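Human: We require from you a protein record containing the residue sequence and its fold in token form, and nothing else.

Assistant:
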Amino acid sequence: MNLSLGFSPCPNDTFIFDALVNKKIDTEGIDFEPVLEDVETLNQWALQGKLDITKLSFPAFFQSLEKYALLNAGSALGKGVGPLLISKSDVGNQKPDVESLSIALPGINTTANLLFSFAYPKALNKKFMIFSAIEEAVLNGDNELGVIIHENRFTYQQKGLHKVLDLGEYWEQKMNVPIPLGGIAIKRAIDRPMSVKVNTLIRKSLEYAFARYPAITDYVKQHSQTMSEEVMRQHIDLYVNNYSLDLGPGGKNAIAALQKVYQEQQAAAKTTLSSGQLFLS
């Protein structure tokens, strides 16, 4: 059986899926066809139901509940893993008037956008772009502020940028749960036994990677060409953890809390909500 599998080229995803897509583990008769794309592209495709299995941001998942169910393995959740709001100038202890400034964000359907709106619900001057372009947009003055994710968390200071607010830290303080960033969802049209098998294989793929860590495989390196191995490991250490092996009650509770915030934001915007169960039942 062939199943399309979408994930990002970032080290946390390639680390998780390397053994699966390259058959370093027994995939039990399933051929996974990897499709590597930026997360907002995957979000848009999820809304269309394009791939069988896909990494996606949780706001995109909340809009796709009729099409997809969340697997227990492969997600990115944790503490201290949230996006950062950054600026070109050092604001120190002063709080900028964020609501009056222009903000670059990595995609309308990203968790970064949701967490920014959670912290600054009245800030509407947003410009959405691919995450890797945000630092430059702030540096060259196209936008006064930016919300950064992925490896940019580890490099923004080297470029002379400054943190205004850790949006993940703000979420943790207000909600007292981990930060749900992205999950792995499977089409509901795929039968339950196959979905359970896929979940088990993703977990085995990650266990395989963990057993050999801190070694960085060629597969991870080839998709992270601009990063040093040190930054790759920082990326993996930050975003891949026990929640990636299994969401567990704590992870599911955090996702449900994020969904409630998402629903409140959509209700305020008078947007029709998608319906369906969150998790693979």
Summary: The first strand starts at residue 2 and ends at 7. The chain has a mean pLDDT of 93. The chain has two domains: 2-77+180-268, 84-175.
